[in-house]
Amino acid sequence: MGRKRRGEWLQQTVFVGPGLLLFLIIVIVPFLMGFYYSFTKWDGIRAAPTWTGLNNLHILLGEERFWRSFLYTLKFTAVTVVLSNVLGFGFALLLTKGLKLKNALRTVLFLPNVIGGLLLGYIWQFIFVKGFYTIGQHSSIGLFKEPWLGTPATGFWGTVIVFVWQTAGYMMIVYIAALVGVPKDLQEAARIDGAGRWQTLCRITLPMVMPAITICLFLTTSSAFKMFDLNLSLTNGGPGTATESLALNIYREAFTNSNFGLGTMKAMVFFFAVAIVTVTQVLVTKKREVEA
Questions:
Q1: Quick one: angle between helices 64-95 and 210-225, nearest 10?
Q2: Which CATH number is 65-249+273-291 given?
Q3: Which phi and psi (to 5°) does residue 7 adopt?
């Protein structure tokens, strides 16, 4: 190996090595340990777990509560991904126009994203339970008289509202960055050729911002699947377990029931489900980028 090649390896080791080492220690090693623990029975207290093979998987396949949480998470993800991206893109379109208050509006719409999930959940819990109740008492608006967070339907939509309210602002920033990069001459040429606003949006703007759509769909899908803090602070999975997300179900299995083996098996199934959905989404939208 020549001196130049050794210098390159040394340079790469110095700059990449510490980060790679931390990644191995913080991410890869715990993941491999979790994969091992998913085939054991362990309460987190005993010195060594007991190997049980595929027993945890058999228990998981027959557990109705887990699959109910799984279906709830799928439904929640589908609704919030669509709403977050539609609202984020709509805000971005609006705020790339010549509005005088566009900078202030960008700040206001992005602000919820900087508030922690638990804090945001408790704030909205107060709004839903106390604020809406007070408004309902002094008005005849039926919306505010609903038992928000008290039924499966309203609890689901309450969580959706807060998640979308928090997420749409961040998606807006990504879409704004993409829309600013769309060539103006293409849009002007389309309008000269007789294309309306809707045709220009569908034929010119959307194909040009498809890379941003890929990123935003990936971010919202993974975030919605992993939603935990809002679920814990808003409904705590209630009433009963009607609004229990998969992440909350895994947390309770491991830390409330002290069943780390089964909890880790659930986490592994969760990981592969999220990986399949997100990779499929990226591959599909990437093809649209190539076609564009």
A1: 150
A2: 1.10.3720.10
A3: -65, -40
